[in-house]
Amino acid sequence: MVEGKEKSMQVWLKEVFGWSSVQTYVFAVHEESGKTLSQIREEYMEQEKFIVG
């Protein structure tokens, strides 16, 4: 919520930093693990590589 309006993280980060695009997975942090969603995705993809490949 920003000034009483719901905004996506991507829209909010673009407005705050003035960026034309944002990789929200780099900024979103999983509270329990302390890892970014990007890190979690990377770990998952590594595991999948061993399962599939």
Map the helices and strands.
Blueprint: H1 9-17, H2 24-27, H3 37-52
Structural overview:
The chain is an all-alpha fold. The protein has one domain. Helix content is 55%, strand content 0%. The protein is built from three helices and no strands. It has helices at residues 9-17, 24-27, 37-52.
Keywords for this entry:
53 residues, single chain, 55% helix, 3 helices, mainly alpha
Task: Give a brief rundown of this model.
This protein has 53 residues and is mainly α. It has helices spanning 9-17, 24-27, 37-52.
Please tell me how large the radius of gyration is. 15 Å
Mean pLDDT across all residues, rounded? Answer: 90
How many helices in DSSP terms? Answer: 3
Helix-strand pattern, N to C?
Answer: HHH
Fraction of residues in H or I helices: 40-55%
- Beta content: under 5%
Shape: elongated
What ranges have pLDDT less than 50 throughout 5 or more consecutive residues? none
Q: Give me the count of strands.
A: 0
The profile of the biggest β sheet is: none
Structural class: mainly alpha
How many domains, as an integer?
1
Termini distance? 43 Å
